[in-house]
Amino acid sequence: MNLVISMSPVLYLHGKHVAHYKNIASFNTQLLIEEQDIVYNALFYSFIFAFIISILITFLAFFLKKSYLEVENLSHFDGLTGLYNRLMFMSVFQKEIQKVKRNRDYLFLVILDIDDFKPINDTYGHLIGDEAIKITASTLQQLLRASESIARFGGDEFIISIVDQDKNAASTIVNRILNEFNNKTIPVSRNHDQQELQINLSIGYTLYRNDDDFKTMLQRADQALYISKEAGKNTATFLA
Length: 240
Hints:
The chain is α+β, with helices and mostly antiparallel strands.
């Protein structure tokens, strides 16, 4: 439509030009036909050229938008699990802190990792290790509510934020996670022998205190996770 509109002045001027020739008694009909052919051919090829350019611009805009979305996705999400990455989680968590300061809800930070993950990699290889991470991520997502945020924090480590009016909400969710992973296995092959690999987790978590920030809460949750590891793994520790 835009191409037709842009060519209308040319067609109008050409029509005036033809009318002017017809008012001349001795105008050359053959010359007029040749001029008309030149004008129509020029308009036709201009239309084709403009049409091709518009298609190229449309495709370019599409691929630029797709590339932008891919870059944005990489900047927010972990490539292996599809969960938030560390930076995105930190941004979300800072907003949660601001919310609980206003509405007085309870905010928990939970950090967990897969027990004996290095031996899994060493024994079965990194592909099995990656599979263990992906299964852990998808299982955790299924166990959490939509209001909870989860991220892959690095390696086999995951981090969760929980906001609730119930002070016992975090312990309920943590126990649910531990119970689920007490029975979580993945099929693996070792020396052509099919086996079931058990996945267990150690967990540390803490509660938001006045004047806390992400760093201070992470330090406490990390300390709690260390206590769980020292206690024999496959357990959870809370530090207020």
